[in-house]
């Protein structure tokens, strides 16, 4: 039997946001690899080997998946959210780039509900107009690039979604992000902190940029900044479809 | 029985990309409203009334949904992709804004797999780093705003996904989009034209910006422009997770 790899997005947390395509791949898999908390979301069963691994070992994990597929295994690489958004799909192709002996591997990328879109849905429709997604972590890029992109996103009046806004190892950077936003945007700009979306611990807080504090975000939070037209209606936050006088 | 509205994303086309949450809402619905081709994706059954409507009547449709929910109906408003990305969620809140008598309506937004993420998955991982989503239609915003956002997205070195790139009524604008991109980006920049993703007619073509022509896009196409580091490996296109020397 020939092996394959499916890089699958498990969505933000709720079972009913996992696509049937991902469930089908998991049902056929012999091996599941991924970051510990994501592998923990896959039910154990006979014939399935779980390979949880630590954070920041994405390339090793991708290489391991390629080796197993070459040995005939049916491997699902799990990401939370969507595997193509700051997750394992790029890591797999990076591993493939430096290991041409695996060029013929049967690979599929299975999309998932990414955190910003689940957060947006539960808050209303804050990303209902043009928007950007920015990973605030500087593990893999200099923080100056984050700042550069923030300013362009603000000057283009994009709504913005921030992944990995804050960690214990870099508590000051999100403070700097808020400073940059305050330089570029009006104080009334709406900003949403959406934590653990679609899980029992979900909490979504909406404040003005003037009221936002760094402690409102942690690594389980997706932050959404509205554009200049984003507004509230009742408990909802949404961005109108029209802009610039239309 | 009290009525409700679920604004649901049907995903890009394939049945196995419809989330269980959306399927459950459709199973409980008494009424489905939406643009004709999206309502056509919902199976008819006893007790379910389908209300297909034309394009560009989003506010009328949203108002109709609010009225039916107030009358006790269980209404699913269907969008393709994700309802919060250039789709019906914002339209519903716009309708709610001008009709405070419906303020107490039970509303849920159910996310879906949006076209750019399905296209990215089938192409590889071109949105694996920071990216923007831009609606190129000027129905609801002046084209100058599109151009302004394009330049900021390019100068921020974001990857970009374009929705509604081209229609019969405005064939020249996508030509102008390509011109702007050529002013801002190098000729080798990769650009993907992903048509009818996840349907039997799916076709994904990747070319350099120098080779791109306006006819490569139509209204069923999502266009993805890589960032300056986006590359090919075999048949795949991906954007590395690292940038700026990390």
TrEMBL record, chains A, B:
UniProt keyword annotation of Methyltransferase present: yes
Keywords of the record: Cobalamin biosynthesis, Methyltransferase, S-adenosyl-L-methionine, Transferase
Domain of life: Bacteria
Segments forming domain Tetrapyrrole methylase: 5-212
Pathway: Cofactor biosynthesis; adenosylcobalamin biosynthesis
Entry-linked Pfam families: TP_methylase (PF00590)
Protein's GO biological process: methylation
First-tier enzyme category under EC: transferase
Gene Ontology MF: a single term: precorrin-3B C17-methyltransferase activity
InterPro entries: 4pyrrol_Mease, 4pyrrol_Methylase_sf, 4pyrrole_Mease_sub1, 4pyrrole_Mease_sub2, Cbl_synth_CobJ/CibH_dom, Precorrin_MeTrfase
Its EC number(s): 2.1.1.131
PANTHER family given in the database record: COBALT-FACTOR III C(17)-METHYLTRANSFERASE-RELATED
Protein known as: Precorrin-3B C(17)-methyltransferase
Gene for this chain: cobJ
């Amino acid at each position: 039997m020939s092996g394959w790899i499916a890089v699958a997005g498990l969505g933000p947390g709720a079972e009913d946001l996992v696509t049937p395509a991902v469930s089908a791949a998991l049902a056929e898999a012999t091996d599941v690899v991924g970051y510990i908390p994501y592998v923990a979301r896959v039910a154990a069963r006979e014939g399935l080997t779980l390979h949880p691994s630590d954070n920041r070992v994405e390339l090793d994990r991708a290489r391991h998946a390629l080796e197993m597929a070459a040995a005939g295994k049916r491997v699902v690489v799990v990401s939370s959210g969507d595997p193509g958004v700051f997750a394992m799909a790029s890591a797999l192709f990076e591993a493939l780039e430096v290991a041409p002996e695996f060029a013929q591997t049967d690979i599929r990328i299975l999309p998932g509900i990414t955190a910003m879109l689940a957060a947006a849905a539960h808050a209303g429709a804050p990303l209902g107009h043009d928007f950007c997604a920015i990973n605030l972590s500087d593990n893999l890029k200099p923080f100056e690039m984050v700042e550069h992109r923030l300013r362009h996103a603000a000057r283009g009046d994009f709504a913005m979604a921030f992944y990995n806004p804050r960690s214990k190892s870099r508590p000051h950077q999100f403070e700097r992000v808020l400073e940059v936003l305050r330089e570029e945007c009006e104080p009334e700009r709406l900003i949403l902190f959406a934590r653990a979306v679609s899980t029992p611990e979900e909490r979504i807080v909406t404040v003005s940029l003037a009221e936002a504090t760094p402690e409102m975000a942690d690594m389980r939070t997706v932050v959404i900044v509205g554009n200049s037209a984003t507004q509230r209606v009742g408990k909802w936050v949404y961005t109108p479809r029209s802009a610039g006088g239309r």
